[in-house]
Amino acid sequence: MTGCRFSSYARALLMLLILASPSGYAQEMDAWIMQLFPKATRIEPKQEEPPVYSVYQLDELIGYAFESSDYSNLQGFSGKPIRLLIGMNPQGVLAGVKVLEHHEPVFLHGLGEQSLYDFVDQYRLKPIGKPIIVGGRQGASEGDSVTRIDNVSKATVSVVILNETVLLSALTVARKLLDGFASSPLATPKMDLYEPLDWNQLLERGLVQHWTLTREEVEKSLGHELDGYPELDLDQPAFADLHFAYLNAPLIGRNLLGEAGFARLNEELKPGEQALLVMSSGMYPHVPDDFVPATAPSRIVLMQNEHAIELHDMNFNNGAVLDVLDSPISDGEAHIFRIKSHAAFNPAQASGLRLIAQLRRNHLVETKVDFTRDFQLDAQLFDIQEAKAEARPVPIWLRMWQERWWQVGLLGLSLMVLSGVFIWQHRISQQSRGFHLFRAGFLLFTLVFIGLYAQGQLSVVNIFTLLLALAKDFDIRVFLMDPVIFILWSFTFVTLFIWGRGVFCGWLCPFGALQEMLGWVAKRLRIRQWKISEPLHLRLQWLKYLILIGLVPAAFYSLTLAERLAEVEPFKTSITLFFVRSWPFVLYALILLGLGLFVHKFYCRYVCPLGAGLAVLGRFRLFSWLRRIDACGQPCQHCRNHCEIGAIRRDGRIDYDECIQCLECIVILNNEDQCVASISARKKMQKAGKQVDLIATDASVPAS
Predict the structure, then answer these.
(1) Helix or strand or coil: residue 132?
(2) Which of 115, 116, 151, 693 could make a disulfide contact with 107, Cβ separation 3.0–4.6 Å?
(3) Contacts with 189 (C-beta within 8 Å, 6 or more apart), sequence order
(4) Is the full-model pTM beyond 0.70?
């Protein structure tokens, strides 16, 4: 009971210290870390390598906290990384995950952030020793080999990226700080390589390294003499005189420690661990007078590949190392240090011992300088294993394509069919009833499969993401995360320059398909359509371009602001969330759909900024495929009267900026029982006793 009370008091004291902290960010960070580690009584400042916060309960290390931005630059679906605070205990079990910053539209302006917080709560107490997979079903062959967490419907891409960010960050920290997560060294000592050697022979062969750091070298580095440092014994001949040796190799360890000492050393070392002997004397030995056994020394580290490897005192022989050494050295300091397995130290590679001198003039003034002695052990001491090429993990975007393979295949097949319809539109449109049935079926497929199921509703937000990526660091992997969206955008972009905007707007937009179906309902219910005068219609068309002009600069100013303004699109409410959202958004979407009962595809014609953007690019199309004849508009107005989108001008020309290429005018043109000009010509020919194929012979006029 006393211990619990003390812990509570210590935690309360820590909270008071946090609140009194002069740094706002540090104060917030400590408070967040305490949410992950409720038993914490002390949080160490963030260290540099690796960048983590060490968390203690009294003097016991209970875990590490770290920010994902220090380890991962994976971009979210918004084009910006999801920044997380991750807690992990020394056994590699996640203490929790906290979202510090994100820009994922589906959570900010769709499902709500609570669904994101509920998702990250699942990481608590999950071990990182086995893969953590989002969603899917547990396979019988998997057993306990993987950990599965629940997906968030409508936000698969975002949560998969978040999961990769958590695992990449946590595994990076684990490999540097935790036992059992780093691979064994590639060089292992030859245990059968041994011959008796005395101290001088070990020195001559470089098996024991001797390093003398003179007073002059230190003074040159400091730029002044050492007389002003009272802690130094200036009567010593050298600043530091060190001997050090790698002990795992029997040729070194057995000769220095003897048979019994070498055997005891190997008993104390854990699998994969290595040992380094350091002895020193002089003004500045490798440990201070108040060094605590079984801790890490502050004055020396091992260097390899420009990375510092922390050493840990083994307190071998209760600290009396000199008593067991076969050496002529009897004075000074001597310690055997443990190199932990997660450090992945390779003894056959070039290394260095670094001495860090922290010299105090007084309690206020301290000077820090370091020196490194490089060394290379003989490779013949070791069995060198060839580095095994690690199986690189499958990239996230590729996994997403593999998991959605059948959706990709079905979508690809449907786009091939649609391309065929456009290429052979005149032949196919001759079967009026069959074509109308096909179009109705395809729009149903677009709404149900592409939109509601595969979540393939394109949005003006996608354009923002692309523009920002092009302006900064473009990474195509961000766009490959969602294969359905990527394929649709690629197909739309290509067809923009062939046929114009109508391929997407008239056939592949789920919300557009929903509006067209409402038009069918309006006809069935005989709802009277509102007649909009041509001058007003032409002015209203500019509204969507004005909206687009306002949205694009906003995206460069603030993506969050642009995402909020992009709620002018009802796609997220109706298609992504299927109206499960707060009432203002639902009401707005229903109003737009309701207007569509009285004005055919009201939103597409006058409001849609995505359609406006596609229309701008569609001006660079190569072809104007919608065929016109001399009679179109002069005097025949039949196609114009049947064009529900209002994209045929009075003179018969097609306005491709507004046309959704429903191909209804082509159906009329290619059916002699519908085209007024064909019917009139046929009647005249019948009276004259002749037959003529008007459509085949009449001159065509170019469309603008």
Answers:
(1) strand
(2) 116
(3) 248, 249, 250, 347, 381, 382, 383
(4) no
